[in-house]
Amino acid sequence: MEGRVDVDTREDVVSEVMKAWEEVLEIYSKKLEKRELTIELLLMKITRSGGTTLHMAIYEGNYRSLKKLVKLIETCDQQRKGSAAAVDEEDEEERGKGRDWKEELADDKGNTPLHLAAKMGQDHMCYAIATSTSTKLSRLTSCRITMTARLNLRGDSPW
């Protein structure tokens, strides 16, 4: 059986990887319930190459986990906002500090989760990120026109 993958082993491995994702999402969900979840925690660099959990979900092609992460980011963003005035003040403060979320979300190769998904041809993941209501993720979509053009050329554009 050299060169062949044992189906049972493959299923076991996939099951363990999915359990790990469920555990990660459970940690985030518990922190969200306690109102301890922050955008910074969700988007922290966790790999040696500077990737976030979004990067990892994309690398693994795990659309379900990516969607849950995006939803958690959106929920956390909504909780953080509180009021429109607070959002404007915070956004103004971030601009004043020169905070660049694209740079903060990029891995060591300069790939944001959106760029990575586009490079890997994960069009449905691009769409999930590009259409997010999160103010942090929406700042990544400056390349939306380029991405949409690429998808249109292939005939795959969801827009």
Care to describe what's here?
This protein has a single domain (7-154), classed as Serine Threonine Protein Phosphatase 5, Tetratricopeptide repeat (Alpha Horseshoe), CATH 1.25.40. It has helices spanning 7-33, 39-42, 53-60, 63-81, 84-97, 101-105, 113-119, 123-130, 135-138, 144-154. It is mainly alpha-helical and 159 residues long. The chain is globular, with a radius of gyration of 17 Å. 67% of the residues lie in helices and 0% in strands.
Instruction: Estimate the helix proportion, in percent.
Output: 55-70%
The CATH level-2 architecture is identified as: Alpha Horseshoe
Helix and strand content put the structural class at mainly alpha
Strand content: under 5%
- Annotated CATH topology: Serine Threonine Protein Phosphatase 5, Tetratricopeptide repeat
Give the total of beta strands: 0
Can you tell me the CATH class?
Mainly Alpha
The figure for the number of domains is 1
Terminal CA distance: 46 Å
Low-confidence stretches: none
| DSSP summary: helix tally | 10
Estimated radius of gyration: 17 Å
Mean pLDDT: 77
Instruction: Report the sheet with the most strands, covering strand number, pairing sense and barrel closure.
Output: none
Task: Briefly summarize what is shown.
With 159 residues, the protein is mostly helical. 67% of the residues lie in helices and 0% in strands. The chain has helices at 7-33, 39-42, 53-60, 63-81, 84-97, 101-105, 113-119, 123-130, 135-138, 144-154.
Produce the secondary structure layout.
Elements (H helix, E strand, L loop, with lengths): L6 H27 L5 H4 L10 H8 L2 H19 L2 H14 L3 H5 L7 H7 L3 H8 L4 H4 L5 H11 L5
Helix pairs in contact: 1-4, 3-4, 4-8, 7-8
